[in-house]
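The authors assume throughout that readers already know how a fold can be written as discrete tokens. For illustration, here is how one protein appears when written out as sequence plus structure tokens:
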Amino acid sequence: MDQYTASLIVVGSEILNGQIVDTNTSYLARSLRTVGLSLQRVTVVPDVVDDIAKRIRSASQEYSVVFTSGGVGPAHNDVTYEAVAKAFRLKLESHQELVDMYSRMNPDQQEIRRLAVVPKPCKIINVNSTEVFPVISVKNTYVLPGSPKYFEAAVNTIVPQLKGRTPLHLEHINIKSNELSIVNILDKQAKRWDGKVRIGSYLQLEPQTFTRVTLEGSKEAVAEAKEEILYYLPVQKLVNLEHGLSRFQMNALLEDDEVYVKCALDIVKECYDRYKSDEVFISFNGGKDCTAVLHLAATVAKSRDISPLLCLYVTADAFPEVEAFVELASRYYDLTIVRKPRPVRSAVSALLEERHNLKASLMGTRKGDPGSANLQSFELTDPNWPRLMRVNPILNWSYSQVWSFLLKHNVPYCPLYDQGYTSLGSRSSTMKNPLLKDPNDPSSYLPAYTLTDKSAERRGRL
């Protein structure tokens, strides 16, 4: 028998025939988790003595603790006490302490004495609610009333006294994918965390269709497993990205053995070696290239306990999707975003006037960008610009390498890249790349990472 498991036997023909909806199960399950007990089985049985007794006898041998709900009133079909007695081969007898208690509670109702006829021996537990009332336990079985008001009060009294283990912690991840699309990921993670974290997935249909991935275990194990699972689930499909950059993601990137990634990381590290953290900012406009640089910088910053990162966002006729993504990135990476209007030169000047300490800017410039063919990884601004060191970690990356990096490390990016855009500028100067028209459906476009002609990256820019 697992010493940390529980079973609930719900007694009531009215539940089986649909007259009443059971709410006691979820309340008990949540309460048991707080003391490290896991509700492993719930059985609903009719008001039949033999059926109830059979379930109690079996459950009491298989689980460390058993609860029953319902069937303990004075009516002819309230037979749970009789079933408990039969399950444990005990006699039913009138318990004087219960007789006295019920007589005080209802002195004018002799019928209430029926509630005092219980299995012998049993333990009486006084429950404090709006009024004190008793419940009984026999061996490892607690016999509770079915009314949610009294059931919950009894649970609140009994469960804190149970000896479990570390309280069970439950978290979930919502993802806009069906279960089939992530089943292989979850299979591997379930094996990886077997015995430490219980992982489940459940299709949710309201208010919108999505899959909920649940994780249950100790708080520390759940947190660690969640970080790892989030790294492998498709980030663009996650409903909520508030969790932020995890240490698992950080370590995965720091351990990446791709030469182009290592070189970019070295440049970012050198930047933070040359300059103090408050002397560096990131030029960020929501595009794929500066998003890659942001992820590199955030990884290095997290490894050095640098927070928050400062970003300059130069705005001009931006897509709403870009604005929304910048806000999401701000929360995800814990950024301080400074917004300035175009032109870029004036925006940089205004920023430096406000923050005189700034000396370097991490940028998403690549040699394929206009006017960037002769740039170096560390390059001072031109004489007619505010004096600043431009740091270009991905200067030598190709279009394919940018997307390989973003997809491999599950980096969140602007959703416009999944709608046919390959290069983002202002709304008035940016269109979908015609080369990404879906050959099977000319009205739709393929994602940017499917572009095969890398020289056509800017085909959508006017």
